[in-house]
Amino acid sequence: MKFVDEYRDAARAEECAQAIARGVTRPWTLMEICGGQTHAIVRFGIDELLPPTITLVHGPGCPVCVTPLELIDKAIAIASRPEVTFCSFGDMLRVPGSRQDLLTVKAKGGDVRIVYSPLDAVKLARARPDRQVVFFAVGFETTAPANAHAVFQAHAEGLRNFSLLVSHVLVPPAMEAILGSPSNRVQGFLTAGHVCMVMGFADYEPLAARYRVPMVVTGFEPLDLLRGIHLCLNQLETGRADVENAYGRTVRREGNPGARALLQKVFRVVDRKWRGVGMIPQSGWALREEFAAYDAEQRFGVADYVAEESSECLSGLVLQGVKKPPECPAFGTRCTPDHPLGATMVSNEGACAAYYRYRRRGA
User: Fold this and answer.
1) Is the four-CA dihedral 65, 264, 280, 141 of positive or negative sign?
2) pTM, two decimal places
3) Can you list the domains of the chain with their CATH numbers?
4) End-to-end alpha-carbon separation of the chain, Å?
5) Which pLDDT tens digit goes with each residue over 192-210?
6) Digit-coded pLDDT (tens) for 258-305
7) 267 near 256, Cβ under 8 Å?
8) Which of 13, 66, 157, 266 has the smallest set of CB atoms within 10 Å of its CB?
9) Are 344 and 316 in contact (CB under 8 A)?
10) What's the CA gap between 244 and 313, in Å, rounded?
């Protein structure tokens, strides 16, 4: 299949791995910052192609995984109301809250629906003026433009029965939090190509300069990842710390100007809590004042919810690159996709789910 197979060519991957091995003179630790990249690395064995001196660790790149526990509880509380039709992407339905998940609410009779776009929720609100339609707006910069457009469209049409439960997070502040942590072990980053497709990569340049850490914009196929790793290691070996674009077929430095303009019009930057990580300053988006009427937290009075994380789940350490999933005592025993302790085992982009599917003993 053209444009897929050409980036999964085994011979070219082996050549790239050999070139990496020839150029490495000391141990290095790199982090990818995208759940899709994490799954590709584990699925295709990218890390196993590399010299043993190269360590790949997995960052907070799964949007479902970093959605804080109290946001899940807020979603459950809203979805449980009889007048509400709660819309979400499917991967959020099994993420555990404090006591249950959205799938349980649906099983108990709640009107919880899987949609494929926030505009599906807008369409539903338009068709059902007697219902309060709420869309769970989760994700990084990648999914934010569509959610911003949904609010903008609802506002233009005067739809008063539509709202968003917003849990958008931003990648660069999370990277800075990792780099500033006393437990940081990351010496270079592979940045998410789809995030940079929207936002560009200029915002990464001050981080690379300040912390002297190379960053390479990378795609999701095996050859994309190997090329990104190669470029990042070349920088480390030569003492450089720049932002390079290894995903030029999709990403430009300025990103998508139209999408960025819409995001700026609808959202404002706020402090945001990340599940398993904690509060990161200026790391999220919330609706601007002129769109506050579409804020589901305010509309349904759930803004003050708080919740405590499970002490048994080590997803926070996994998301920070401090531990890998098999190092958690509950991995594959107390914590499985059928009975997850944390979101990293539920999401299709979660690191724990990737290791469970592709690296579990006997799998």
Assistant:
1) positive
2) 0.91
3) 65-170+255-299 (3.40.50.11740)
4) 28
5) 999 999 999 999 999 999 9
6) 999 999 999 999 999 998 788 999 999 999 999 999 999 999 999 888
7) no
8) 157
9) no
10) 35
